[in-house]
Write a structure and sequence with these properties.
Helices cover 0% and strands 39% of the residues. The protein is an all-beta fold and 173 residues long. It has one domain.
Protein backbone atom coordinates (compact mmCIF):
# COMPACT_ATOMS: atom_id res chain seq x y z
CA UNK A 1 0.00 0.00 0.00
CA UNK A 2 1.88 3.08 -1.18
CA UNK A 3 -0.23 5.62 0.70
CA UNK A 4 -2.39 4.82 3.69
CA UNK A 5 -3.46 6.21 6.99
CA UNK A 6 -2.09 4.99 10.27
CA UNK A 7 -5.03 4.73 12.63
CA UNK A 8 -4.66 5.91 16.17
CA UNK A 9 -5.75 3.62 18.94
CA UNK A 10 -9.03 4.57 20.61
CA UNK A 11 -9.68 2.44 23.64
CA UNK A 12 -12.94 2.33 25.49
CA UNK A 13 -12.94 0.82 28.93
CA UNK A 14 -15.59 -1.22 30.45
CA UNK A 15 -14.45 -1.19 34.03
CA UNK A 16 -18.16 -1.28 34.38
CA UNK A 17 -17.84 0.92 31.35
CA UNK A 18 -17.96 1.62 27.61
CA UNK A 19 -18.18 4.62 25.40
CA UNK A 20 -17.51 6.79 22.34
CA UNK A 21 -20.82 6.81 20.57
CA UNK A 22 -21.59 3.62 22.41
CA UNK A 23 -24.65 2.25 24.09
CA UNK A 24 -25.13 -0.59 26.49
CA UNK A 25 -28.64 -1.85 26.79
CA UNK A 26 -30.37 -4.62 28.67
CA UNK A 27 -33.55 -6.44 27.78
CA UNK A 28 -36.25 -6.68 30.37
CA UNK A 29 -39.18 -8.60 28.96
CA UNK A 30 -39.49 -7.31 25.39
CA UNK A 31 -38.40 -3.75 26.15
CA UNK A 32 -34.82 -2.52 25.96
CA UNK A 33 -33.43 -0.28 28.67
CA UNK A 34 -30.47 1.95 27.87
CA UNK A 35 -27.90 1.54 30.63
CA UNK A 36 -25.07 3.73 29.28
CA UNK A 37 -25.13 5.91 26.18
CA UNK A 38 -23.77 9.06 24.58
CA UNK A 39 -25.81 11.20 26.98
CA UNK A 40 -24.33 9.41 30.00
CA UNK A 41 -21.45 10.94 31.92
CA UNK A 42 -18.06 9.33 31.31
CA UNK A 43 -14.64 9.76 32.91
CA UNK A 44 -12.14 10.39 30.09
CA UNK A 45 -8.37 10.37 29.67
CA UNK A 46 -6.75 11.68 26.49
CA UNK A 47 -3.27 10.76 25.31
CA UNK A 48 -2.01 13.24 22.72
CA UNK A 49 0.66 12.67 20.06
CA UNK A 50 1.50 14.31 16.75
CA UNK A 51 -0.59 12.76 13.93
CA UNK A 52 1.08 10.29 11.56
CA UNK A 53 0.47 8.73 8.15
CA UNK A 54 2.09 5.65 6.62
CA UNK A 55 3.87 6.34 3.33
CA UNK A 56 5.82 3.64 1.53
CA UNK A 57 5.71 1.49 4.68
CA UNK A 58 7.17 4.15 6.99
CA UNK A 59 5.38 6.38 9.49
CA UNK A 60 5.65 10.09 8.81
CA UNK A 61 4.46 12.93 11.06
CA UNK A 62 1.80 15.13 9.53
CA UNK A 63 2.04 18.90 9.72
CA UNK A 64 -1.51 20.18 10.20
CA UNK A 65 -2.09 23.63 8.77
CA UNK A 66 -4.83 26.21 9.05
CA UNK A 67 -4.76 28.94 6.40
CA UNK A 68 -1.15 28.07 5.61
CA UNK A 69 0.01 28.29 9.24
CA UNK A 70 1.15 25.12 11.05
CA UNK A 71 -1.20 24.13 13.88
CA UNK A 72 -0.28 22.27 17.03
CA UNK A 73 3.16 23.75 17.60
CA UNK A 74 2.28 23.63 21.30
CA UNK A 75 2.28 19.82 21.08
CA UNK A 76 5.92 18.94 20.50
CA UNK A 77 5.84 15.97 22.87
CA UNK A 78 3.56 13.04 23.73
CA UNK A 79 1.32 13.32 26.77
CA UNK A 80 1.35 10.42 29.26
CA UNK A 81 -0.55 7.18 28.81
CA UNK A 82 -3.16 6.29 31.43
CA UNK A 83 -2.14 4.01 34.32
CA UNK A 84 -1.94 0.32 33.33
CA UNK A 85 -4.90 -0.62 35.55
CA UNK A 86 -7.24 2.10 34.26
CA UNK A 87 -9.87 -0.43 33.11
CA UNK A 88 -10.17 -2.16 36.50
CA UNK A 89 -13.38 -1.54 38.50
CA UNK A 90 -11.48 -0.33 41.58
CA UNK A 91 -9.40 2.24 39.62
CA UNK A 92 -9.84 5.76 41.04
CA UNK A 93 -10.79 7.95 38.07
CA UNK A 94 -11.80 11.01 40.11
CA UNK A 95 -9.03 13.07 38.48
CA UNK A 96 -10.21 12.31 34.94
CA UNK A 97 -12.44 14.69 32.95
CA UNK A 98 -16.16 14.07 33.48
CA UNK A 99 -18.18 14.60 30.31
CA UNK A 100 -20.72 13.20 27.90
CA UNK A 101 -19.43 10.74 25.34
CA UNK A 102 -17.71 12.63 22.56
CA UNK A 103 -15.90 11.94 19.33
CA UNK A 104 -12.86 14.18 19.61
CA UNK A 105 -12.25 15.31 16.05
CA UNK A 106 -8.60 16.10 16.64
CA UNK A 107 -5.65 14.58 14.82
CA UNK A 108 -3.65 14.83 18.07
CA UNK A 109 -5.82 12.38 20.06
CA UNK A 110 -3.80 9.16 19.95
CA UNK A 111 -5.68 7.33 22.70
CA UNK A 112 -9.03 7.99 24.34
CA UNK A 113 -9.91 6.00 27.45
CA UNK A 114 -13.47 6.28 28.71
CA UNK A 115 -15.00 4.88 31.88
CA UNK A 116 -18.68 4.64 32.73
CA UNK A 117 -20.35 2.91 35.64
CA UNK A 118 -23.66 1.26 36.32
CA UNK A 119 -25.03 -0.89 39.11
CA UNK A 120 -26.73 -4.24 38.69
CA UNK A 121 -29.04 -4.75 41.67
CA UNK A 122 -29.87 -8.38 40.85
CA UNK A 123 -27.14 -10.04 38.71
CA UNK A 124 -29.40 -13.06 38.07
CA UNK A 125 -31.75 -10.77 36.11
CA UNK A 126 -28.96 -9.13 34.08
CA UNK A 127 -29.34 -11.11 30.88
CA UNK A 128 -29.16 -10.08 27.27
CA UNK A 129 -26.80 -7.11 27.59
CA UNK A 130 -25.92 -5.66 24.17
CA UNK A 131 -23.10 -3.37 23.14
CA UNK A 132 -23.51 -0.99 20.23
CA UNK A 133 -20.63 1.32 19.36
CA UNK A 134 -18.96 3.28 16.61
CA UNK A 135 -15.32 4.34 16.63
CA UNK A 136 -12.41 5.63 14.57
CA UNK A 137 -9.10 3.82 14.62
CA UNK A 138 -9.43 0.79 16.86
CA UNK A 139 -11.31 -0.21 19.98
CA UNK A 140 -10.91 -2.45 23.00
CA UNK A 141 -13.88 -2.81 25.37
CA UNK A 142 -13.64 -4.02 28.97
CA UNK A 143 -16.32 -5.08 31.42
CA UNK A 144 -15.21 -5.22 35.06
CA UNK A 145 -11.57 -5.26 33.92
CA UNK A 146 -11.92 -8.13 31.42
CA UNK A 147 -11.73 -7.54 27.68
CA UNK A 148 -15.04 -8.38 25.97
CA UNK A 149 -14.57 -6.91 22.47
CA UNK A 150 -11.83 -5.68 20.15
CA UNK A 151 -11.83 -4.13 16.70
CA UNK A 152 -9.04 -3.15 14.30
CA UNK A 153 -6.32 -3.71 16.93
CA UNK A 154 -3.72 -6.44 17.23
CA UNK A 155 -4.31 -8.88 20.06
CA UNK A 156 -2.43 -7.76 23.21
CA UNK A 157 -1.38 -4.51 21.51
CA UNK A 158 0.24 -2.02 23.90
CA UNK A 159 -1.89 1.09 24.52
CA UNK A 160 0.31 3.31 22.34
CA UNK A 161 0.23 0.93 19.34
CA UNK A 162 -1.45 2.14 16.16
CA UNK A 163 -4.64 0.51 14.98
CA UNK A 164 -4.79 -1.15 11.56
CA UNK A 165 -4.28 1.17 8.60
CA UNK A 166 -7.34 2.41 6.76
CA UNK A 167 -7.65 1.03 3.24
CA UNK A 168 -6.17 3.25 0.52
CA UNK A 169 -8.71 5.75 -0.75
CA UNK A 170 -10.60 6.06 2.56
CA UNK A 171 -8.85 9.26 3.59
CA UNK A 172 -10.45 12.66 3.94
CA UNK A 173 -8.64 15.66 2.72
Amino acid sequence: MPYGSARRLATIAFASVLGMSAALSAQEGNAETLVLGVSSYWRCHYTLKPPVVRKAGALEKIVCESRGTPRGRWLQFDTPLPPKDWMQPEFNDVGWHRMWAADPDSPWVALLCMRGKFTVKDPRRAKGLKLSTSYRGGIAVYLNGKEIARGHLKKNAPPDDLAEDYPAGNLKG
